[in-house]
Predict the structure.
Amino acid sequence: MAVSFNKVIIAGNLTRDPEPRTTQSGKTVVRFSIAVNDFGSQEASFFTVVAWEKLADVCQQYLTKGKPVLVEGRLQSRSFTNQSGEKRSSVEIVAQNIQFLGTNERKEASV
């Protein structure tokens, strides 16, 4: 039997403030991006992070553009059709644990 494992850990800086939304069922969700600098290079990789419910509330309260964070979660791919009718796909990190870095009092939030 094959074993599956889906876990990712990244640390970087927010490239934009968390964007809050509420689903039709009333759940809170925020989406934000993180830039992660590659070691020994001037290049960065950019990742979209999604946080739900209580974790989303904490992110919305404490995170702003430029803040350093460590995100632990899982990768999720999704497909959608944009407003122009084009089919698109994206891969996101669904956050399960977020540590707010770079402050005197270190904060951590988990699902």
